[in-house]
Amino acid sequence: MCRPPTYARLSRGLRGWLRAAREAGLEVEQYMAEHGLRHYTEYHPGSDFWAFQAIESIWVLGLAAVLFTAAVWIVRRRTT
Length: 80
Known about the structure:
70% helix
């Protein structure tokens, strides 16, 4: 049976990585990189906040409109 990850299971996994890195005498990032894991972070300037907000709002409202239209179409089809 496959269980969804819980905070306790995830934190045990992280502690395991930290412990293994300490035992190997390496930094956590270096230890994880040697085992095929990479960490990537991308930062955006604060001046882009409203542009990202507008883009996200447009696609969320578009998705809501499509779902609303589909719901109306299904209800009308079933009631006639």
